[in-house]
Design goal:
Blueprint: H1 3-15, H2 18-39, H3 47-60, H4 62-68, H5 76-92
Length: 100
Amino acid sequence: MTKEKEIKLLKDYKKGDREATDKLGTEATRLGLAIAGFYYKKPSKKYPEAVYHAVSGFYEAISPYFKNSRDKTDKFTTYATWFMRKNIEDKMNTTKKLTE
């Protein structure tokens, strides 16, 4: 998804558009699964909880993205990844280095 499409989708979501909400939910889940897999493998009992916290972080990133990214040089998903990882690490008391 291009940066312009992401921004339009986020604006529509903030207006309460149902279709935008569904598309963002799909994107959040897809990205959440990938990020949670970085911390826990799928057979792990903690994997579903990590996915939940990642998706929560995705939605927490929406408001700060519009407030802090004035020039919007980064795609939203790139920006949201930080929130998703931080949410997993904070809520589940875990850290993992990118080099592992």
